[in-house]
Amino acid sequence: MATVAETAGSLGHEIERSGAPLIDVERIWKIFGRNADRIVGTPDAELSRSELRAKHNCVAAVRDVSFQVWPREVFVVMGLSGSGKSTLVRTLIRLIEPSAGRVDIDGRDITAASQAELRELRRHTSSMVFQHFGLLAHRRVVDNVAFGLEIQGVAKAERLSRAGEVLRLVGLEDVANSFPDQLSGGMQQRVGLARAFAVDPKVMLYDEPFSALDPLIRRDMQDEVIRLQHETGKTMVFITHDLPEALRLGDRIAIMRDGAIVQLGTPEELVGSPADDYVSNFVRDIPRSHVLTLRWIMRDPAPGEEEGPRLDVRTTVRSAVPVIVESEKPVCAVDNGRVVGVVDKEAVLTAIAGESG
Amino acid sequence: MAVAEAAGRLAAPPPRRWWRSRTGLVLAIVVGMVIAFFGWRNQLVWPGSFTWNSLSHHLDSFQTWLSNNRNVPHPSVFFRAFNGLANFLDNLVGWLTSLFFKLTWAGTTALGVLVVLRFGGRRAALGTAAAFVSFAAMGLWESSMRTFALTLASVGFSLAIGLPLGVLAGRSNRFQRAITPVLDAMQIIPAFAYLMPIVILFSVGPGAAVVTTLIYAIPPAIRITALGIRGVPTNTVEAATALGATRMQTLLKVQLPLARRMLLLSVNQTILFALSMVVIAGLIGGQGLGDVVTSGLYSNPALAMLAGAAIVIMAIALDRSTEAMAIRTDPAHRHLTEGKQRRLRLYTLGCAVAVGLAVGLGHAFNAGSVWSRWTGQSWLLRQVQSALDFVQNPNTFIFHITNPIGNFIVRYGLEPLRSFFVEVPWPAMTFGLALIAFLLSGLRPAVVTIVMLSVIGVTNEWTSAMDTLSQVLVATVLTMIVGIPLGVWAAESARTRRVMRPILDVLQTLPQLVYIIPFIYLMPVSIVPGVIAGVLYASPVVIRLVEAGVREVSPHSVEAADAFGATRFQTLLKVKIPLAREAIMLGVNQGMIMVLAVVVIGGLVGSGALGYDVAQGLQQSLFGQGVLASLAILALGIALDRVTQGRRRRRLEDLA
Fold it and tell me: Is the pTM of this model over 0.90?
């Protein structure tokens, strides 16, 4: 799977960011505490967390967050614990009621939906994978995977055959008749994934799905998500506190702090031009050459420079290094067969040198 | 500047001198009460002008009016409702009893043993079979079946009410908040206190016995069920919601199945609570073993002992078998595949056929509804009687142990305390206790304490209540002397814990009254059996609470103390016990309430005081007196609870 990491946008597909977004989040707030709903819109909403707690005994978990997610996009929300990211993903399908703001999913206003409409959305449009799996200990793996369909009222034979298909997709067909506590953590989360996929949703929500797993297994699971994304083309909102994971998976990443988004952009944008000290502190230890692509360091070609070896503009600096070192001439960055810029040795060295400083 | 400010804020206040600490103040109040006692001894008894003397008379005429109106040919709707319920329950118990009789003894035994075998496994089934054999051997088959029928009816009813309410309390915070004080109150009231009102409303009979049991057994059913529902991992519930499950789907497919073990545990607890009440119910017309015990206490002590033993056996067998069934049928740990399920279905079928066969054979050979062929009853009775004679013979060594202990407790504990409480000026008593309540628990408990003590005074039960209070206090002190060291020891040593656990388990399964029986004969000094029984009844819970409290102390704190080179004793004294103080305080609180429940039952066997008034009310139809004494028991229970509840009340469940 190493190749996947070598192209930018990680998953290596182009997102059409035109037309209607699949998820449209507009100025969402969530404040916990009594009378919390009255605070949004008043000047008090601008108070810092500790001031708000002192004055109203309320906690602002999500503050004025807006973003759009387009079809087939992987949108990652990254933040440390307590940054409000898990609350945010729950407000999207109203597992937690937002205090203010509006969420549209697939053209429907979720915040105004009735309980019945909300159930319909949760049954058919969205699916969620949880940090601690949330599996039913008293049911076999296959029954767990079929649970979403059972909730929808799908007949037993049909839902079991669908569950069997999904289990094959995640490579768990051999343990279909086992019980969750007989599986390892990684396998349990595969069951969680399969359960979410079984209902064939348009939107997959992941709430720190791999945080409870060992690093090696975590990598396997990330590969699994990438593979599934390739095969099924779902739209994903992925919550994590792990920056490498965010960079690996995300088409775009929103970094949250104290309930608000401090920067939203592609992995390259975050690593290449962090918005503030908080973000740059975060990305400091990330090898820039692993994230930045030729697009980020190329310059306009001077006349006659277009003869050098050609590389896709999405190639990361690291994988371009051998070609650039070998070549006498600057390397040409190509997008759809057209040369869009050139990269010389100096640009590569500058990019790599930037890592230490 | 900022640093200086912070330092100013962090600087510790000067330590208080010990006499200004809470302990010191409580001690000062007690000293004040003692001074009042010596200064105005016997001069300020509860004034007659503050009592409502005709209340008892009014209650008597109310009771007469009730029974006159209840037993007319066409009673009003109100009476018809109560009569109907009582009749229904009577019939239910009667129907269950006759079912057991119709199955014949062979069929009943087969049914009981095979159900336990199918769902609880071989060991539990063996225990059940042994219980049936012992009922037969003791010649108490019929009484045992009656008691079992009574228990079953009570449990069925308790669960029918308790489980749904528990589910509701588990799912709704608001309902939980609303119902908790009610449950608290139901559990504080000693069972002895509500016998009278129930007899008045339902008249004597199995129906009244079932209702009594309900009041006692429903609270644990609700609590444990709610706890089970709340114990289902939130993310599992959330996962179901995220998949679009309705509330009903979440309940049926997620919460109930995952809480199953706790639900079955609540069934187990309800059975034990019900069984322990069934004995007391013998006083108000519940037939069976309870009846044998309560009537045998005076006329046939050996038979009462035997019936007590039968109850103990039944309690242990029911406890073990339901616990085994709860654990073995938990689907989360059984990993049932389809093949296994098919085999189990066959197994069930086989068991059902075997029961049918046993019933058929029973009828074919005229086995009879109860076992009566061979019993060891007369032999057992002789043995028990000779044992009783032995311990009561002034020439045996046991007498030389028990008698001095009994006398010591009376001379240096009960007598002086009794005279102190009864003769201390009532204002000193009332306000002293209220002040202690204020210091330990806060303003509201203090007010409640004053109100409760006034209720006791107004109903003209002051002297009896103070007498009971002295017994409760002596028993509580003894309980603490036994319970705290044992609890700490159990927390410190795994081996002690292993040895003590089965003993505590058995002690906790025993019905209250059963504790008293042996001590009536071991320590025949009027008040002592009730007190000792109270200590035995309350000690297991206190030991468990203290043990849990000490063990709950964070291992990090202990590790830190170890790292500073503290000896084991220092760690215990300076870290563990102070950090476990709340649990110990809860132990005092719970211990007192439990002791009170037993001490008043002691009124049946010569403890006098409030319990005696209730017993007399029940046995000699002195309704007014009985109801007032019941009211006083209730008031005393609430007052004691409020005085010792502490500021931040923690529940048993949090620690258990």
Answer: no
